[in-house]
Amino acid sequence: MPAVSDYTAPDLTTELFTLEADEDATREGRFAKWLDAEGIGFHDGMTDPEDFPRFLEAFHADQRVLWGVYDGAQPAEALDAGYPVATYGTMVHPINVGAAQLEAHQITAVTVRPSHRRRGILRSMMTRDLREAKERGLPLAILTASEATIYGRFGFGCATFTQSVEVDVRERFEITAPRSGTTTLVGREHAARLAAEIFEGFHAVTFGSVGRQYTYPRRASGEWGRERPVEDRAVRMAVHYDAAGTPAGYVSYRFVGWETTPYTMKIVDLVATTPSAYLELWRYLGALDLVQRITWDEARRDDPLDWALRDRRCYGVKGADDVLWVRLLDVAAALGARSYRGSGRLVLEVEDSLGLVDGSYVLTVVDGVADVEQVDAATAPDATLTVNALGSLYLGGVQASALAAAGALTAHAEDAVHLLDTLFGRAEEPYCITHF
Ligand SMILES: CC(=O)SCCNC(=O)CCNC(=O)[C@H](O)C(C)(C)COP(=O)(O)OP(=O)(O)OC[C@H]1O[C@@H](n2cnc3c(N)ncnc32)[C@H](O)[C@@H]1OP(=O)(O)O
């Protein structure tokens, strides 16, 4: 993709670029300066110069589009003008919406330097980007948010959640489900490949899951550390093989250290393709000698683990996080691709302050399969909601009845809320363990 330039404000230049394998990976190159500018936004240290080529390889593999906003009119002693004052990045990965894998426009690396904040730089980048993503035919945009107050104004709704758990694995820990298969530590040389393969299996069967970027299997395997793309020797990975000998899940973990009591193992990543693989990985974790507590920040909100324990009070929820925020760019394509529960017909009036998708849509579902059509604004709606509320409703992680009770959805027809709850609801919550 060629570099494109335009002006965000009189003194500012916006440049978009993608990375080829032969991109300059030295400290003086535009990639290094972009990466360090992003690090400023998230209070990270400057990148070690020897790490740039590996980060470049990762960004290239993800086919990221990087945006930099440059200010050539800063004081002479300011950080050199090659460092953007704002960063923004996008890439595309599939999201599992049941009946289909939709290409989702992912937004990441959003930063604006303190000297330039609250002048509309984010608004300018995001409104342009959402419009262009829609023009390219992408049905929805997704992101994970640093703060819950930023993205509502751009039409995003919070859609999936995880919880942080602590599990007491002392004597009283016991999984009551029948045993199956085997779980064993794997050699580092096999770990990244197994992590990638197992994640593919998980993603294929998990509603709400988003395909992962290049770094994930490397971090899960310990090939890359959390901060730097160098081996983290403290990370170990165990794989569960089902009764047929097929790899069906993995857990990678890291000991917190002897100074922390109770002695704690922290899960770096846990991915299971079946409920039984999930419980077997926990059986393995519970059997680690000298460990008294396991912590994990990515459990499902409807985690079955406590129901598989002899003493369910071993399981404690320490916090909850939102993960995916969803913004529909094409209502008919996004709603039409998703699978539903039951049958029914509704006219939805969608409000969008950015003007990308506002209008009325008829959603007709027959035995879980949808047909969606935009209709004349004069058609009487059964429910009116903002595009944000539709984003929250979209994956079934938030119920229409909760949105209605919160004043975020207005029903005009009796039973509209109940029907939305039925159609969009799911036996299992949507679950995304990909952050970007
Ligand atoms: C997907 C991701 O990457 S999440 C990471 C987001 N980035 C961070 O948290 C890094 C630290 N923060 C920043 O770099 C900046 O403060 C940003 C990127 C969040 C905002 O950039 P700015 O250029 O200052 O935003 P901009 O001036 O365009 O503001 C647009 C609107 O959002 C509002 N806004 C911006 N940031 C925030 C915030 N943190 N909380 C609440 N409102 C906010 C502004 O008030 C403005 O509102 P209005 O248009 O209704 O008047």
Detailed description of the structure:
- The chain is globular.
- It folds into 3 domains: 4-138, Aminopeptidase (3-Layer(aba) Sandwich); 162-321, Aminopeptidase (3-Layer(aba) Sandwich), CATH 3.40.630; 331-424, Nonspecific Lipid-transfer Protein, Chain A (2-Layer Sandwich), CATH 3.30.1050.
- Helix content is 24%, strand content 31%.
- The chain is α+β, with helices and mostly antiparallel strands.
- It is built from 10 helices and 20 strands.
- The protein has helices at residues 30-41, 52-61, 121-135, 188-205, 215-221, 275-286, 331-337, 387-394, 400-405, 416-424; strands spanning 4-9, 12-18, 65-71, 86-96, 101-112, 140-143, 157-158, 161-168, 182-185, 235-241, 247-255, 264-272, 293-299, 315-322, 325-328, 344-351, 359-366, 369-375, 383-386, 409-411.
- The strands form 3 sheets. The chain has an 8-stranded mixed sheet with strand order 1-2-3-4-5-6-15-7, sandwiched between helices. Strands 9-10-11-12-13-8-14 form a 7-stranded mixed sheet, with helices on both faces. A 5-stranded mixed sheet has the order 18-17-16-19-20.
- Acetyl coenzyme *A binds next to strand 5 and helix 3.
Which runs of at least 5 residues are low in confidence (pLDDT < 50)?
Answer: 1-7
Radius of gyration: 23 Å
- Oligomer state equals single chain
DSSP summary: helix tally: 10
Q: Quick one: overall form?
A: globular
CATH architecture of the largest domain: 3-Layer(aba) Sandwich
What is the domain total for the residues?
3
Q: Which CATH class of the largest domain? A: Alpha Beta
Instruction: State the end-to-end distance.
Output: 22 Å
Domain N-acetyltransferase: 46-176
InterPro entries: Acetyltransf_17, Acetyltransferase_Eis, Acyl_CoA_acyltransferase, Eis_dom, GNAT_dom, NAcTrfase_Eis, SCP2_sterol-bd_dom_sf
GO molecular function: aminoglycoside N-acetyltransferase activity
Family: Belongs to the acetyltransferase Eis family.
